[in-house]
Each structure stands twice: as structure tokens, then as C-alpha cells.
Amino acid sequence: METADPKNIADVEKAAPEAIEQLSQLFGSYKAEWLKEQLFDLFTEPQYFPELVTSRPCMLLGGRGTGKTTVLRSLSYEGQFALSKNRVSSIGESKFFGMYYRVNTNRVTAFRGPELEEEGWIRVFAHYVNLLFCDLILRFLQWYELHTDSRLAISDSAYRNITLSLDLPQVSNLRELADQLNASRFKFESYINNIADGNRPRLSMQGAPLDVLMESINALPEFRDRLFFFLLDEYENFEDYQQRVINTLVKHSSQLYSFKIGIKELGWRSRTTLNPNEQLISPADYVRINIPEKLEGEKFSTFALSVCNERMARLRVPSEETIRDVSTILPGLSEDREADILGIESIIRPIRDDLQAAIGTRANEISSLRLFLLASWAEKEAAPLTEVVEENFRDPIKWNMRYDNYKHALLFMIRKGKRGITKYYAGWNTFSQLAACNIRYLLELVDQSLLLHITTGNNLSQPVSVDIQTKAAQKIGEKNLSELQGLSVHGARLTKLLLGLGRIFGVMAANAVGHAPEVTQFHIKENGGNAEHVEKLLNAAVMHLALLRLVGTKPADEADTRECDYMIHPIFAPFFVFSYRKKRKMLISGSELLKLVEKPQETITEILAANNRAPDDPLPEQLTLFESYYGAYTGKTATD
Amino acid sequence: MELIRERPLLTDVYEQLMAFVPESSSAYVFGVSNEERSAHSEDWERQAINVKFVRVVDERESGIVVQAPLGETTVSLRSESQIRALLSGLNSNALYIDITGLAHHVWAPLLRVALMMALRTKVVYVEPGDYRFSRRPTEAEIFDLSERISGIAPIPGFFGLSDPEDDAICFVPLLGFEGPRLAYLLEYVQPPRAKIVPVVGVPGFRVEYPFYTYHGNQQPLRDTNAWKNIRFARANCPFSLFYLLQDISRDYPEHLIKIAPIGTKPHALGAVLYSLAGGRRVELVYDHPIRKADRTMGSARTLVYHVSFIPLTTAS
């Protein structure tokens, strides 16, 4: 068995520095904001991309790491230019121009406080949005002039209308307009800093300067029949009333411009416009693009593979062979093969010997994993093994079905309580499922696997062992668990929730026989008078990918959390050791969920007891870091 | 290279708490938090002569309630005129702002207006004896952000609208012990990875503190490779930090310098002073922690910073 200690940096550097550095560049820079110009070099168009380039407003929904920023940036004029390899003629050929803006929390949170009523903040914020969007347009126009070496002939009357709508002095060219807009921002800044003093500057009407400016641009021959998009990223950072202000612009956006909005699931908290009776409705008002839904199943695997292969093709290390298909160096395991590697034979041998003595050679007709099920079943039912085996022969249909149901679940029990790997997570398909339509998670899994592979003395012409893949998957689960703390103001509560649920599902997976196998989901049975707190916790958990929300077939409001089932994001499955597959569910009350955060030790015990399990299994090796958190279970340690 | 005489550290250091006495005919603004070290002002009040002590008795999101000589007053921190009225009403020769027991969002706007009014201003800070914090947060105690931060929002008076291109940003987190706060800020600021310049307080209040800082922040530092860019400034010296920020700004010309003052209070003071001097090229990004009770123990040295020399930009 190979050893793989990712902490040993000296080994990493000695191993194959060139390959490691390049792999880290290609796969380790999985955040759009880290890639800079490489972002466009490595861009792979997702299948839903054509839906975004129409004139209709779009809401692009997906968790952190699903590729929203990459897609929005690729729609920007800078992105399109880079994708054309900086070909100047491409600017004239472009059918659309997108202006990217990431909602800046440090700006938008200034527009709240007791100094104004909400009505007042709406007016002030709407003016800020006018300044902001006009600035985005002016930046684009200046960029256009610079790159095409041309001068846009905006008419004097257009300049007059724009300056009137923003209460600016008269200007005669783009440069002057930009300067005046900047000066106006200075004044506005000072007003916001001293908002309790009053002295409010003249505020523009919501959207009015934008319409005037866009009208004059659309009239230019250079932009005839071109589309203009505002690409708003991280929409969830807006305050609720601010979302209503932008929703109003979206609802009433004309032929002049449109919006493409990136938002985390459940981050769209307010769906009305400033008119409380007016909702934004899909498909009438916007196209809803839910990335995980669009990439469900094989589509994600295919997309992810092309992203990885595209990156791998750029690896330039003389000593390394080119890998055309990343999936081929990440082999998986069948369940029977995995049972073998986990050591099923050494467990079954004495059982089979005893059985042979009792029923003769028929004992050899039963596969080892199936015999493991029969033996576990007999133990659970306190029945003689021979009786259970005879029933297996008598009623093969029933037992075949039972075996099918339990086969995967049995793998979690073979090395239960032992040191080292107790369940393998390997293979391209498994990695795709662990990532659950999240391209960042998939890149992390591939990156970590290849890194461990190389640092343990292997090269890229050899497949990555299942041991290394599993250790990489555990490491990525641990990494994302620790990152959860820093993702939001609820980060610590989410970490505690995940530690609690992860342990519960881990213990249940290791003790499956006699219970429903592969319980990986939960449903909230009642909120116990804490509906608001439960919903807040669940929403934050879904938004920051601690949990996945599984919307049932019933038609329900997207934001309605009551009718949903939940599961821990599969990326954490290797760390806590449970199944990543969407299978069966259990019920948890809202108050139990809250208590998991406040009183983890006693609540874990209660929930496990309600599911007929005891919390006394040793912690998996990788969880021993949290021994004191789990407290009561530290008496036992995993054995060799 | 700057000459040492051009970079003075205008600090009076008092080894004993009671060795410091505010000068006569001055005003002394202070607050008492739940930390032991912030309780000193009451002792000084007893031994000071002809000093107007102004106690901040309530700190709200954008306002304060002060117990001034003429009674209790509410002052909006988002009102230059109200802060001016408060300070000019004190009618004194010098102003002390004791930041030990005051939150950043309270002392920073007071200091800003005091400097704009050209008052002779000194900032007082008492070092803690020790911090109570978990050396191994993952094992012993998960850092509870929800109890400790309210989230990113501008410090009153320091809101800015400079929005350069994403690549023209240099992010300078002034590190404390709590890595999740750095991770949280990185998640929201999303600076270019190569332009993160963390600052560690060296020498620390205590010799071992820089090591705790590295340990506490190791994951975000490793993930972003920002550990390669770490710079150092004396933990209890706002001036050292101020000069370091000057150097960093020089290294990143034409960049917006986003400073996250999540480390020591003297570093936060240096950041605020630099923001007042640097104008629109500087932005403060802050997560507004809600302090846990008894986060520190005892008190060590008292430091008095002479901050009036700071040249304000017209934009402030």
C-alpha cells in the first residue's frame, strides 16, 4: 500500500517540481478570480451557454464553484475579446457586449442604517446604481475607442440629456463625461459618509440616466442591432430592498439592455419589484438557469472531463507522457473488487469453514460479500447462520433483492473500526458524483490526486492508485469542511452542523445491516416552534454547500425549504465515511437540527438512538482531530 | 530608503499603568468594554487634574451615547457635524482618544474628525496581559464567527466609491490570531492571488504571538500562497505600520490598497491613519467582530501615540 502524506512539502519539491508546479497552475487555480487571463484560455463552454446570449434576462443559479463567475466573465467584453485571442476585428463582429460587476459587500452595506427609512434608502441606492452602471458603460465605451482606435460620435443632444438626468455640468465628450461622473461620485461618497447631516445631493430617477445613455449608444452605427448585458455576479450580497431595486430594472429592462445575474441557490431572497404586487416570474420575465440541474448526470461528467482534459493537454513536462483522457488515470473499483481489497476474505474464511462443516460444499456457491451479508443478518437477528443461509437458497428472489439493496452498504462495514481506509472513493465516475455538478470540487479532487500520486514517486503514465484517490478525496472533504468557517457569518454554525450530521451518517453507514441501507438524506419532520431559525440554518447550509437541497416532484416555491429533502454535500462523504449516493432518507426534527449545533454530543446520541444505533463506534482516523468535539466517543480508537 | 529621522515613532511608553497621567486642560474620550484592561481610565480620572473625561456608555451600529460634562448625548458616527460639535464642545488644549475599550467603528470616525479639526490629538492604548484563545481551534473549540462578527460593512466615515479594475487591487490583511476572519475577508474581497500582502505584528506583544498568528492563519495563507508575501511591523506601533503601508503602496503604484485591520488595535490605528493620509487610494475592509467576554487578561504597557502629524488628504 502506498503512503501518501501531503504535508511533507520537502518530498513534494523533490519529486517532480516541474510537473507539480504546472499541475498546481492548471488544476489548483480553480477559482475564477485566481486565474486572471488564464481564465479565458482555459474556458470550456458549458451546454447551457447559448441560453445566456439571447436578449432575455437570465438568472444563473448555482453554489460556490459551479462556474457562475467564469461564465459571466466570459460574457464580458474583455472576456469575449480574450476568447477571440485579442483579435481587434472580433470587436466589430461581436453580437453582444457584456459589462461585468461583482456586487461589493463593502459598498452595498453602506446603504442601510437608522438614518433613513427604507423608502429613503431605496432612492439613494437607486441613484448609486445609476452612477455605478453609467460608469460601467463609460468604461466600456472608452475601452472600445481605445481598442478599435476610433471615436464614437455621441451627439451633443445625447450628452445634454445624460448630464441633465444625472445633474452633471454640460460635457462634450466621453472623457469629460467620465470626469464629471467621477466628481459626482466624490460628492455622493461624502453624503453617504455623513448621511445623518442631511445635505442630500440631487438624486437621479431610478434607471433614467441608464436609459438615456443606452439610447444614445444604441443609436450609434457601431452598435446597431447589438445587445448590451449587465453581468451582475454575487447577487446574494445585495440587501433585500436592493434586490427589489434591481429586480425592478430587470422587469422593465427594454430592448436597450438586459441582465445576466449570477446568484447562489437561495440567495435570491426578494423576488418582487418595488411594487410589492409585482413578482419576477420565470419564464415570463427571465430565463432560469440552474447549473446543477442543467448539468445533471452524464452531462456534468462529460463537461468536467472536457475541462480537465483541456487543462491536462497544456501540461508541458518533458519526462511526462501526454494524458489525453484524465478519466483513464483515475480507475475505479467494482463492489466485489473493493470488498476484496478491504479484506473480505480474511473475515469470511472462518465463517465459510464453519458453514462448510454444517452444509457441505454448497457453502462455496455463495460469494464472499453475500456471505458477509448473510452472516451479518444472522448476527443482527440472533439467528443461526445455517438457517439464514438455507432461507437464502429457498427464496433466492427475496435474497437477491436484499443483496442488491445492501451490496454497496456492506462495503462500509467490512473494515469498520479499523485504522486506515475503511471505504474507497475512487474512479472518475465516483469523483463526478462526489463533486455533485461542482466543477471546482472536481478540479480539487483531480489536483489533489495527481499531486499525491507524483509526490509518492509515481509518474503520469501510471494510473493513480485507489488508495491515493481515496486519501485525496478525504483531504478535499477535510479542506472544504475547514473552509466552511470562513465562508459566511454563519460559518461556524455550519461547521458544527456538518460535524454533527457527518458523524451521524458515518455511524449509520457502518451499521447498516438490519436497518434501511444507505441512508444519506433527511427530511425535516417538524420545526418545533423554531421554524425561522431552522430555515435560516438550512438556507445558509445550502447556500454555502454544506448541504444539498433535493426538491421533490411537488410544485413548490423555489425558496420554500419545507417540502425539500436534504443531504450532506457528497464532497464530505469520504471524510466522514458514508455513501455519496442519493438513496434513502430519515426524519430529523427542526429542534434536533438546531441542537446539533448547540449541544452536539448529546444530540448525536439522541438521533442515533432514534435510529437504533449506538454512538460508540471508533472515529475514523481522519476524524480524530475532532476527538474532543465528539467528546464521549473518544474512549475507543480504531484498531489495526 | 527613507532616513530614520523621516520615520519617527511618536510614541510615549509607560511600563506602569499609573505612570501615565493625561495632561492638564485636556479632554479624554474613552469606553469601558468587558475587558479588564479597559477599566484603567477610571483610575486615571481620579488622579488627573482639570481633565474632561468623556465616557462612551453605549456603542451602536452607527451612533454612540456619551457621558460628557454637560450630560448624556447621542452622537451619530455618520455625521461630521455632530462629532465636530461634541469635540469642539470639550473646549480643551489636547484630545486623548483611548481606543483600548472602544470598537474600531467608534474610535475611527472620532479620530478622523479630530484630525480634520486639527486638534492636538493623542491616542492611548493599553496592551493586554495575555489573550484567552484556543491554540487549537479545530480540536478544542470551533471559532464561532456568528457570535463574533456582524459581517463586512464600511467603518462610518470611511466609505469610498473607488472601483478600479479587479487586477488593480492590493489586499493587505493585518493579521490577528483568527484564521477564519482572514478566510472570510478573502472570500468577499476576492483579491488577485499574487497581490495579497499580509502583515504580521513582529515583534509581538509577547515573543510567541507571531507564531500563533502564523498558526491561526495557516490555511488561508497556504491556499492563496500569500505566506510568500508576508511583511512585518511592530505589533504595538501604528507608525511602523503606517510606514510599511507607504512602502507597500509604493510597490503597487496605481493600485487601490484594501486594508483589513483584523489584527492588533495599534495596527488598526496605523491603517486608519494611513487611510486618512492616502485618500481614495486606500479602502478599509472590516468584518466588525462582536467581542467575546473576557477575551484578554490583565494589562501590560500603556502607549500614547502622537498622531496629529498625519497629513490629511483633501478627500478625507
Beta-strand residue percentage of chain B: 25-35%
For the largest beta-sheet of chain B, the strand count, sense and barrel status come to: 8 strands, mixed
Give a short account of the largest sheet of chain A.
5 strands, parallel
How many separate helices of chain B? Answer: 10
Estimate percent helicity of chain B: 25-40%
Rg from Cα of chain A: 29 Å
Ranges of chain B where pLDDT stays below 50 over 5 or more residues in a row are none
Mean pLDDT of chain A: 88
Low-confidence stretches of chain A: 1-13
Number-wise, the strands of chain A total: 9
Beta strand count of chain B: 13
Beta-strand portion of chain A reads 5-15%
Tell me which protein chains meet in the greatest interface and how many residues each side has: A-B, 48 and 52 residues
Which strand order spans the largest sheet of chain A, edge to edge or round the barrel? 2-3-4-1-5
Overall outline of chain B: globular
Radius of gyration of chain B: 19 Å
Structural class of chain A: alpha/beta
What does this structure look like?
The complex is a heterodimer of chains A (640) and B (316). Chain A is 52% helix and 7% strand. With 640 residues, chain A is of the alpha/beta class. In chain A, the strands form 2 sheets. A 5-stranded parallel sheet of chain A has the order 2-3-4-1-5, with helices on both faces. In chain A, strand 3 (227-233), helix 14 (240-251) and strand 4 (258-263) form a beta-alpha-beta unit. The longest helix of chain A is centred in the first third of the chain and has 31 residues, at 118-148. The radius of gyration of chain A is 29 Å and the shape is elongated. Chain A starts with 8 loop residues before the first helix and ends in a 10-residue tail after the last helix. The model of chain A is unreliable at 1-13 (pLDDT under 50). By secondary structure, chain B is an alpha/beta fold. Chain B is globular. The two termini of chain B are 28 Å apart. In chain B, 51% of the residues are buried. The mean pLDDT of chain B is 86. At the A-B interface, helix 9, helix 10, helix 12, helix 25 and helix 30 of A face helix 2, helix 4, helix 5 and helix 6 of B.
